[in-house]
Amino acid sequence: MTRSRSVFITGGNRGIGLAIARAMAEAGDKVAVTYRSGEPPAGMLGVQCDITDPSQVDAAFKRIEEEHGPVEVLVANAGITRDSLLLRMGEQDFTDVIDTNLVSAFRVAKRASKGMLRARKGRLIFVSSAVALLGEAGQANYAASKAGLIGFSRSLARELGSRGITSNVVAPGLTATDMAAELPEERIEALRGQIPLGRLAQPEEIAAAVQFLASEQAAYITGAVVPVDGGVGMGH
C-alpha cells in the first residue's frame, strides 16, 4: 500500500487546483490547499492564505506541518490574470500578476524545500501554461510570469537534484475552468480552432499529469516541462 504523503497545493479550491487536490486525496494523500475566499473543499485541510504575503505563507506551512507533517509534494498552482494590451497595461497589472504567479511560487518552494532537504526527498511541481511558450496578445504579464516558472523550476532541478528532490513544470493549454468561462464565446472558438485535438482540456487531465510527476514512477524525471495542451504548443 502506498504511504500517505503530505501534499500542499496553492490555489486548490477551484479549477485545476481543485482537480489536483481531489485526485491526490482520492489516492490517499493528506492534502492541504490554500484559498483566499469562499469555502475550502470538503475532506481536505483548507488554509486561508494570501500567498503574496510572506507571513501568511509561513503561517500556512506551520499549520500544515502540525497537522500533516512536513510537505513532501508541493504544487504551485495559484495564478491570476490581468489581461490587457501592452500600451494599456498598468504597472500594477504587470506586477500583481508577476507577484501572484511567479514570486509566490518562489516563496512556497523556498519554504517547502527546507523540509525536503532534511528528508532528502520531495516533489516540486509548478503549473505553468502553454502561453509561457507560445505567447499571447494581451497576456504579456501572464506569459512572462508563467515562462518565469520554467526557468525557476529548472534551476531548482539542478540545485536540489542531488538531495532526491525533483522539480518539474506542467504546461496546460486552454482548460475548462471558471477562468476560461470568463472569455467571450467567440474568443474560445478562435482558440479552439488552434488546438489539434479541437477541444478544451478538462481539469482532471491536468491533474493526471501532476499526479504522475508526484509519483514514484516519475522519480527520474526532473527539469521537465510536460505539455497538456491538446497539441497547441508543438515545437515550443
TrEMBL record:
<dbReference type="GO" id="GO:0004316">
    <property type="term" value="F:3-oxoacyl-[acyl-carrier-protein] reductase (NADPH) activity"/>
</dbReference>
<feature type="domain" description="Ketoreductase">
    <location>
        <begin position="5"/>
        <end position="175"/>
    </location>
</feature>
<dbReference type="InterPro" id="IPR036291">
    <property type="entry name" value="NAD(P)-bd_dom_sf"/>
</dbReference>
<keyword id="KW-0560">Oxidoreductase</keyword>
<dbReference type="InterPro" id="IPR002347">
    <property type="entry name" value="SDR_fam"/>
</dbReference>
<dbReference type="InterPro" id="IPR020904">
    <property type="entry name" value="Sc_DH/Rdtase_CS"/>
</dbReference>
<dbReference type="Pfam" id="PF13561">
    <property type="entry name" value="adh_short_C2"/>
</dbReference>
<comment type="similarity">
    <text>Belongs to the short-chain dehydrogenases/reductases (SDR) family.</text>
</comment>
<dbReference type="InterPro" id="IPR057326">
    <property type="entry name" value="KR_dom"/>
</dbReference>
<protein>
    <submittedName>
        <fullName>3-oxoacyl-ACP reductase FabG</fullName>
        <ecNumber>1.1.1.100</ecNumber>
    </submittedName>
</protein>
